[in-house]
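<context>
A single protein, sequence plus fold
<sample>
Here is the protein in question:
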Amino acid sequence: EYIPMTFEAFRIIGMPLAPALEAPLMQDGYDPFGVFWHVDSLGGIPDNSHFLFEDITEWKNHVKIPDLSGIDFKGIAEKELEGVDRNAQLLSYYHSTGIWERAVSFMGFENTMVALLEEPECFHDLLDVLTKYKIEVAKNIIDAYHPDVYVDFNDVATARSLFMSPECYREMIKPHQKEFIDYILSRGVLFEQHCCGKCEDIIEDYVEMGAKLWHSAQSMNDLKGIGKKYKGKLTIEGGWDSSGVPGMITATAEDMRNETRRCLEEYGHDASFILLPVMFSEEGNSVLTGRDARLPAVVDEWNKNKAL
């Protein structure tokens, strides 16, 4: 009947658990794997001046899988879900730092990409252990929250292309990703793949593995063509030109209105599409904070143009 928007369609859940499971959210600090992160209002990033290790053949000496037994998943979920109307919004759990991103957090991009080529067996061994951890986290999250959608954050692309060839992705990462997705689907939860950047060469793989949604789909991809091809099979959540003027702190409310109309007109009618405005201000990333002085202009423009 109309084109949804992220803030209206979904309630993001599980953020209070993020520091205990993957990475700090509010301030600099160590994650449960022992990686130090720098955090500001726009998000967090692993410290690149020091790695846990640089040679993947040594990973077993450095990687300690976090113990989840002491985390009160159900208690935290009950507190977070107090007063939540599940009939009004879908519950969407954001699981940060996917298996590729986690490997990068340990040893940096360069060492990780070298490992793909030079030590594929060690790389598979590491990703196998990380995948089992992710599945154990997912089990606890699903038992506690019963989410409608499970979002896996696993950025394998830059603004220009994948970090590796599609063939390398399919050989080295996809088997582990599929194991993880299979578990989510076995629990009756919709799976959504987050991947920023130009990852259009592996969208077919996402669909084949069972992803029903693609999160933060950015405009350097052929979103119009992808939307037409997979309409009814894959929902595109994104569209926003976050690398252009609409993603800048200096963008005006009118810039945001123009971008809202562009997204709705260009992607909303020929695709399964959810508008995801990604706006940055002094308050941070609007997707994470829910705050931006220009957000009312976006909502107003969306309301005016959302009908199909």
Notes: The two ends are 6 Å apart (CA to CA). The mean pLDDT is 96. The first helix runs from residue 6 to 9.
